[in-house]
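Notes to self, DNA adenine methylase:
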Amino acid sequence: MINPVLRWHGGKARLAPWIISHFPAHRVYVEPYGGAGSVLLSKPRAYAEVYNDLDGDVVTLFHILRTPGAAERLEEALRLTPFARTEYLAAYEPCGDPVERARRLIVRSMMGHGSNSPHSITGFRADTRRDGGTPVRDWARYPDRLPEIVDRLRGVVIENRPAIAVMGAHDGEQTLHYVDPPYVPSTRGRGRDYAFEMTEEDHADLADCLHRLRGMVVVSGYPSPLYERLYPKWERVERRAYADGARQRVECLWLNPAACHRRPTADLFCQTDDGECVA
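result:
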């Protein structure tokens, strides 16, 4: 499994194998809320794949990783970047050069505390006493990970558009949409955690779109009364997970009828030690 390119709020790096185990066979794969792309990077390559996000910084990073010459420039710049508090703080300054913009996003993500460090100053990770490796050692190894990520992104369409528009453009009976929107506000702590938040009305509009799609849909989220109303007849699968600060949560997947119908050995995936299938 490829390591994630960023530490990202709501990222699914640890959950990716479990999520992918519930994916039905598909020809086209769409991630309309791509974020750090952890699930995309971890899954087997499909015939056609689409990554989308509204965050211009992360989309710029993915464009750089797909551009010959630019990816190599980024890798070299990261090798020359010290793990330093001054670098971390300077990375929040705006920048017009795409390669430097991508480098600064990676610096913010990897040198800051918590998964929200790409978007807000959370403090420098100067921890030298951590067991199992330190942040500075992780940073020293980071550039060596890029070639594998660059190779995996070959052939991936990268978009920077509203999620509903992207899903509509690529929908079809053999399309799988993995939909991982910002968590419903009432299911998480206070504060603005995402660069682009969604209200309950936005989640309802998204559900209207998903019910109209011809393709297969898998939705990620926390359990909530809102989602019970929005997806009453979809299959729900859940498992325990940990959020920032080792807070235990219940992570859920909702599968539309098309996804359930095409998913092989669905019962096997539901009956695991980590998760419980909820009808």
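- DSSP finds twelve helices and eight strands in the chain.
- The chain has a mean pLDDT of 88.
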